[in-house]
Amino acid sequence: MPSEFELIRRYFNRPCAHTDLSVGDDAALVRPASGMQLAISTDMLIAGTHFFPDTDPCDLGWKALAVNLSDLAAMGAQARWAVLGLALPDVDEPWLSRFADGLFHCADQYGVDLVGGDTTRGPLAIGVTIFGEVPNGSAIRRDGAHPGDEIWISGQPGLAALGLACLQQRITLPTAARTRCIHALQHPEPRLALGLALRGVASAMLDVSDGLIGDLNHILERSGCGAEIDATLLPLTPLLAAGADEPLARRCLLAGGDDYELLFSAPPSMQTTLAALSTQLQLPLTRIGHITEHRGQLLLREVDGRLLPPLVSGYDHFA
Amino acid sequence: MPSEFELIRRYFNRPCAHTDLSVGDDAALVRPASGMQLAISTDMLIAGTHFFPDTDPCDLGWKALAVNLSDLAAMGAQARWAVLGLALPDVDEPWLSRFADGLFHCADQYGVDLVGGDTTRGPLAIGVTIFGEVPNGSAIRRDGAHPGDEIWISGQPGLAALGLACLQQRITLPTAARTRCIHALQHPEPRLALGLALRGVASAMLDVSDGLIGDLNHILERSGCGAEIDATLLPLTPLLAAGADEPLARRCLLAGGDDYELLFSAPPSMQTTLAALSTQLQLPLTRIGHITEHRGQLLLREVDGRLLPPLVSGYDHFA
């Protein structure tokens, strides 16, 4: 059986593009550019909690890196380096090979060097820590939203939650829609280009991992304001077209996890800029409401004009 | 039950000393000093693989950070920041509180800011990624050993392995010795001050986590040379005094894991410097052999003068 060191050499040691010292020493050495802040984020993915143990390891490798990259996108940072911690119940080389393929496919696509890691025996768990660069003071934080700012969401939130419901056999969708929704769940695209383009445009931002409403609440808490979401603006049509009924579509859109779309606030003066950006990136950007001065108050304006608390919330691993 | 976010706020969000943006956004923001390389290392600790599930969480919190700090020490880097990934089977607040106490005790002692993390449900697993700074080109790597350099080890390797054997009830030691050995196992002191002082002194270095012989082999591989260890120089006396017999003491010293002492090579001209450093840091530094030109050949010169391959090897999680 190959050793821990041989496994790392065989599957996780590939040439780096912008790293002084990579896998194989006590620590990696990298050189952040002068005038830059380093953005750091970490996520753990646990079999049974975050993914089905029989998930295609290629998808899993992609997603393990993609969800971390999404955190950098949400800061407006340029992705640069990553390290990987991997606990495996046993050495399954075909599994490892496909996992590494998925991981490096994502790394190559977004210009990330994998610079270090740790492989050990244990229940299947994946920990990724990611590093990006952002010019001093340019990061888009959660605490910059102001009353009057408009609230925007990228892409199509809700598809991943529909995909999960399919895999859990809680719903049945037509084949093409099912395939698209499961792909959204297993192969999220981190919105790095959008994140970079939103520096100086968005006033606050995060990525939607635990559900749109729950995550919007984090912006409201940190920014000390409230929000009003307009039900008539929600991009429900693609979810309805996929085969969801209206209540399910709304729940998936507002409370579905695993979307990894960017949710951000921006002054109304940015509408033209955002429309141009949407065209340039070929990525829908949808205005869904606005920030209010009512600290901590998140309301949904229904189609009939009533203002109600949204009856959905975010995902909590310990709830 | 408190939410994931409330747990993080309650136990892992403490004031930072040198961090622009800490826990609570998509990513932390830190600012490495100009002219510095960033040293990055990650380690995963899994219940049942790296520690007994009933280990005192305070010791565990200390050790999770300490073993990562040891990797920075081994590069000659100054410790600066850390992030934590924590998978927990359930929310046990007294456990979390003690774990955080141990972790922050270590962080405070070595000047580390905990800047981010991820808490999730799963089999108990701890992932720490650590960041340090080292002036460009000053890191002490594994690939700098030269024939003629002497080989040195800090502290007392072997105590942790004796402690593990006690806990596994494979040996019985007198109470005081048992306490000391278990303390060495559960409360390793990362040799950060030594690591910094060895910049410009040591030619190659690593920390001994998987056993002295196994880890020395990593230096030999990377440096393309060999080594001869002199059995008469091995610091066996403290292990014998603790109650181990000669074969056990030797096995613990040469192949025991979890020591987190620094193993390094240095030119013979550094002997006086190293003696002074040992006094200054009140830390034993023991010369145990020298580097040879025989690529990949690690030999032990026995007390009777014979040169033999050491009949021990390092720890491999998948062996």
UniProtKB/TrEMBL annotation, chains A, B:
Mg(2+) 2 binds at residues 43, 71. It catalyses: thiamine phosphate + ATP = thiamine diphosphate + ADP. Mg(2+) 1 binds at residues 42-43, 118. Keywords: ATP-binding, Kinase, Magnesium, Metal-binding, Nucleotide-binding, Thiamine biosynthesis, Transferase. ATP binds at residues 117-118, 142, 209. GO terms for biological process: thiamine biosynthetic process; thiamine diphosphate biosynthetic process. SUPFAM superfamilies: PurM C-terminal domain-like, PurM N-terminal domain-like. It comes from the Bacteria. Residues 24-134 form the PurM-like N-terminal domain. Mg(2+) 3 binds at residues 26, 71, 207. It holds the Pfam family AIRS_C. Catalyzes the ATP-dependent phosphorylation of thiamine-monophosphate (TMP) to form thiamine-pyrophosphate (TPP), the active form of vitamin B1. This is Thiamine-monophosphate kinase.
